[in-house]
Design goal:
alpha/beta; Rossmann fold
Length: 126
C-alpha cells in the first residue's frame, strides 16, 4: 500500500499519475464512489472525503485500515492533510479531522511507502 498526503490543491493526484504511470480511469474518486469500490480500486483519491462520507452515514471506520490491508493491500490512497489548520468548533468536523488523521497514521505505519506532496513536488517520507 502507498499513501500520498498533502495540502489542498498541491498536486497530489498529478504526482500519483507520474509516480505510478496509471491512467486517469484507474483513479477512483472517494467523494462519489460506492463504499465497496475501495476494496477493488487501484488508486483512490479524496480518501479524506471517503472517510467523511463514512462518518456522515454513521459507519464505523475503526477497522478500515485493517480491512484495506486484508482486501486491497496494493491500493494507493491519496488524502489531504487536515491537521494543520484551526481546530474546528463544530463537533462533527473536529471528529472528522481527528478520525482522518488517525486512519492515515495507522495506514502510514504499515504502508510500503508514504509521500508528502507540496507544490507538486513529492517527497518520500517512508
Amino acid at each position: 500500500m502507498i499513501l500520498i498526503v498533502g495540502g489542498t490543491f498541491q498536486g497530489k493526484k498529478a504526482f500519483a499519475e507520474k509516480l505510478l504511470n496509471e491512467k486517469k480511469e484507474d483513479f477512483t474518486d472517494g467523494t462519489s464512489c460506492a463504499f465497496s469500490d475501495i476494496y477493488h480500486a487501484k488508486v483512490l483519491f479524496h480518501f479524506h472525503e471517503y472517510i467523511r462520507r463514512m462518518l456522515e452515514q454513521e459507519m464505523s471506520v475503526q477497522d478500515l485500515a485493517e480491512q484495506l490491508w486484508m482486501k486491497n493491500p496494493d491500493l494507493v490512497l491519496i488524502s489531504n492533510e487536515l491537521g494543520y489548520g484551526v481546530v474546528p468548533m463544530d463537533v462533527f468536523d473536529r471528529n472528522y479531522r481527528e478520525t482522518t488523521g488517525r486512519v492515515c497514521t495507522e495506514i502510514a505505519s504499515e504502508a510500503d511507502a508514504v509521500y508528502r506532496v507540496v507544490c507538486g513536488i513529492g517527497t518520500k517520507i517512508k
